[in-house]
Design brief:
This protein has 5 helices and no strands. The chain has helices spanning about 1-10, 20-30, 45-55, 70-80, 85-95.
Length: about 100
Amino acid sequence: AVNCYIQSFSGQGCSQDDWKTQFTLAQERLFRYNLIFVYERFKDPNYVKAIEQFFGVEKAFNQESNYWCGPEAKQANKLYPLTTNFEAILKLEKLNS
């Protein structure tokens, strides 16, 4: 997986020098940024806490959100449930294929 990350960040294909070219290109590209979040590390509570403290976040930002399915959306869905006809479904399938 590490070589896949190197290849993705470098923007280059395979080389004959044991990934040294891709590693150098990837490193140069990443060092242009002032801050890089490692998405996989968000599973680590210590990593999350360190980022929260760095930015002065009072409420945990790594918690599950109900942005689209909050109480208001659920109530609206109960009051006005989605109704579709078969022709509309076929048309959407055709448009999405």
